[in-house]
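From the pipeline queue, job 12 of 40. The input is one protein chain; the requested action is below.

Action: predict structure.
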Amino acid sequence: MKFITSDKRVHILDAHSNVWSVIMDIADSGVQEEAFYVCDLGDIVRKHKTWKSFMPRVQPFYAVKCNDSLAVLEVLTALGTGFDCASKAEINKVLALGVNPNRIIFANPAKPSSHIRYACATGVSTMTFDNETELHKVKNLYPDADLVIRIRCDAADAQCPLGMKFGCDPVTEAPRLLEKARELGLNVIGVSFHVGSGCREPAVFEKAIAAARVVFNVGLELGYTFDLLDIGGGFPGDRGTSIDEIAEIVNSALDTYFPSPSVRVIAEPGRFYVSSAYTLTCNIHSVRDVIGDDETTRHKMYYINDGVYGSFNCILYDHQRVVPQPLHELPATKYYSSSIWGPTCDGLDQVVEEVLLPEMQIGDWIVFENMGAYTLPVASPFNGFPVAKVHVVADENIWLLLKDILPLTEEHFVMNRAPTNLKLGFEDVERVAVSKLPIRMHVPGANSEHVLEYVGFLQDGN
């Protein structure tokens, strides 16, 4: 039996709708009380177009760890990106979409043995290393792997520095490791680096690419002919940011240090693709007034239905600063010192420490933009509070593009008014059995219908 799952629903917006109107429809429906996301697939497609325009030589390998939602992975698969996977589970999820193993880099320099065996069994041959122990492990488990040495070149200013954990010194350690790889008879095909997630120092890319050139030369002296350069991640993705400065530096450095087209260049963007695609909306379920000692100063404490154990784990683990926006315009005769708190019993569950907001009430909604990166994959239902659901949307133009490259048939389309099945979201595990679907093709126009709804199928047990 086939099943409809909320994992596969995409609402196609008409010309009069956008993300904010969808949020308002859902919030004002009276049905939805839990926190929810709206994911705009068009934002992801536009990011891909931007990437290809700004850095045409650099092939993106999306960092699956950033957001492994099925809708994201399906769209990126259709667009032809590669994938940066860090575990057996991530590899399995990407391969299940029909992705060729050569479009995957196992970019984890410290891999569990069972994960290496899985990569070997599934033909995922490209993987990174940064230490001698890893070389011996690969020699024993996957001697035919195509290895990429990861060097360290940290940005002085990054949202999440990575150099303390991964990467060898390009001068003092890389030559020794390449000698050991040669001694073990292992195939090293290139060099990778990661300047740090959320890099705020574009110039470091030039420094890192120059360091990679030195390691390429060392490999050549040892008898290797490297043909892969992986420039990692660090590309911003929030609304209002741009990769133009980084792209200019990267393109110039590649022209200087790697002018030959024989060297394939890839990158591992994560937040660039998904950060601005996801907007989170939370409901205020409790309000507390704190009166100062002077009995005139007021501080408002707002308790919402998502917190640091859920979507806002990014505050703790990704060092993110979130910006709250009331969904509806409020009569703001006065703004109050306010703080926003999550729903759990943990006193650390604070979303915003201090912000000026108009007075809000129980039942009001607060919107947080740029919530697509390092949120959903880490969220948990601690204290019994559910993980926020996701409603996926795309405008008509984006859908006309996607429908020709996604694996769809006419049976995947049904008409409905949006939003529908609000209690079902993108990551809801509940499934609804169906026998027959109405096949009604329709492009929304000037009538009362809001969306053309795409419903995908999953085989039972998938």
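Job complete. The longest strand covers residues 278-291.
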